[in-house]
Amino acid sequence: MEAIILQILNGLDKGSAYALIALGLTLIFGTLGVVNFAHGALFMIGAFCAVVMQRLLGLSYEQVDPTKTDFLGNPLKVQVPYVESWFGPEIGGAIVDWSVPLAIVLAIPVMVILGFVMERGLIKHFYKRPHADQILVTFGLAIVLQEVIKYFFGANPIQSGAPAALSGSFDFGAMLGFDPNVVIYPFWRLVYFLFSLVIIAGVFAFLQFTTFGMVVRAGMADRETVGLLGIDIDRRFTIMFGLAAAVAGLAGVMYTPILAPNYHMGMDFLVLSFVVVVVGGMGSLPGAVAAGFLLGILQSFASMNEVKSIIPGIDQVIIYLVAIVILLTRPRGLMGRKGVMED
């Protein structure tokens, strides 16, 4: 039982990332009908927003510290972050320590603007083109963005730690009545899971309970009729593209303490997340979220040594095997809508 609980918990953080990326992919496909293979690059750029924020808050200047001396007794020069000189050592140090969550403030406008530029500058020209053309152009855009990040930040992963208060582990087993130190779960992974639930709930609430969201859902069902009512549905869909980009970026920001940002992380998550979208059902937001968590947990169980000793390499292909089985039995996916990508 302890092993089962631990694997479920281990699958939640990766499943959360899959669900958030798949949610953004489905938002774009459901509103614009575009298969966006650059969406993984948006996840990567969000992660590097956290890196940029960390570096900005870490900017410092030299100052002589009379309390520290070298072997000759001369005072040493130390690096003092500007935020500490502005807000004091305690508040300034806390700001630097919480640079990853604070990167959300930077990531939201950056990702929304980037989403607008991508949609208006490139993707709008491919609305009526075949899906194969959309895949090729967005995949090419993803490669360009990947190489830009590689040029400015290098090829090596960049470590971005969680805040000190959330860098420890939580004894989940003791809370459930098991022996202490049996089911240990890192605090930040729990934070990421809860954060993903908040974002997912926020997106669904926005679409379900706001006038803007209701118009968007109507446009997803019948774009031409909504346009005939005098509503500028194209502008609303552009805003939804920016929202989808922001969701992917926020997923990347908060994932940086779990996986050090690198220039190819977007591609690593994109293929798996696209499989998640197909399994959940193209155009189905609940299906994308459900499939993301389901496949993340299955991948966690497949990575157990006991399982890999029986079927070596199963953790690398389990998602694809599940996708094959589901699509053979349910060609539209778990919650796919009739007529989506069936023409």
Kindly describe this structure.
Helix 8 crosses helix 9 (211-221) and helix 8 (187-209) packs antiparallel against helix 11. The strands form two sheets. Strands 1-2 form a two-stranded antiparallel sheet. A two-stranded antiparallel sheet has the order 3-4. The chain has a single domain (2-58, 70-329), classed as ABC transporter involved in vitamin B12 uptake, BtuC (Orthogonal Bundle). A hairpin with a 5-residue loop joins strand 1 and strand 2 (75-81). Helices cover 68% and strands 7% of the residues. The protein has 15 helices and four strands. It has helices at residues 2-32, 39-57, 82-87, 89-97, 99-121, 131-153, 172-175, 187-209, 211-221, 223-228, 233-255, 265-280, 285-302, 305-310, 314-329, and strands at 60-69, 75-81, 169-171, 184-186. The protein is mainly α and 343 residues long. The model has no long low-confidence stretch (mean pLDDT 85).
Shape: globular
Assigned CATH class: Mainly Alpha
State the end-to-end CA separation: 46 Å
What is the N-to-C order of secondary-structure elements (H for helix, E for strand)? HHEEHHHHEHEHHHHHHHH
Taking Cα atoms only, what radius of gyration do you get, to the nearest Å?
23 Å
Q: How many DSSP-defined strands? A: 4
Strand order, biggest sheet? Answer: 1-2
Helix content: 55-70%
CATH topology: ABC transporter involved in vitamin B12 uptake, BtuC
Estimate the strand proportion. Answer: 5-15%
| Uncertain segments | none
Domain count: 1
Largest sheet: 2 strands, antiparallel
The CATH architecture category equals: Orthogonal Bundle
Structure class: mainly alpha
| Mean of pLDDT | 85
Q: Helical element count?
A: 15
